[in-house]
Design goal:
Blueprint (H helix, E strand, L loop, with lengths): L1 H12 L11 H7 L5 E8 L9 E5 L3 E5 L2 E3 L6 H13 L3 E3 L5 E6 L8 E11 L1
Parallel strand pairs: 1-7
Antiparallel strand pairs: 1-4, 2-3, 5-7, 6-7
Length: 127
């Protein structure tokens, strides 16, 4: 049995040229059924204390307003993901505290794919 799995894993890996750039969707969904996803969330508030949200039409959690955030890629530092999320979701740069404000775990008991997250919430400021 182990040899069969090893052959399957080798075949799957041959279709993922560079995991540091992200996974193909099917591979990501498969991995998300086996292990928690680790992500960063950007908490951005204005002088009035209002929180900046972004619109996301997410197939798993529905179209809604969300705190900007993203899943950390293989061998990517959380700081890199914060910068990439700010650029891709907001089109700008941010400054952020070096340590997360909070680390929390989210488990959706009804979902196998994308059902378990470890989230690091960072206080950020738009530049």
């Amino acid at each position: 049995m182990g040899h069969d799995l090893s052959t399957l894993f080798d075949a799957a890996l041959s279709h993922i040229p560079d995991a540091t750039k992200g996974l193909p969707q099917e591979a990501f969904y498969f991995v998300s059924q086996l292990t928690p996803m680790v992500n960063v969330d950007l908490l951005i508030k204005n002088k009035q204390g209002q929180t900046l949200l972004t619109w996301r039409a997410d197939a798993f959690y529905g179209p809604a307003w969300h705190i900007p955030g993203g899943i950390i890629r293989f061998k990517e530092r959380s700081e890199e993901r914060i910068h990439k999320v700010a650029q891709s979701e907001l089109g700008c740069a941010v400054r952020f505290a070096p340590e997360p404000l909070k680390v929390f775990e989210f488990i959706n008991p009804r979902r196998q794919v994308r059902g378990h997250f470890i989230s690091m919430l960072y206080l950020c400021e738009l530049l």
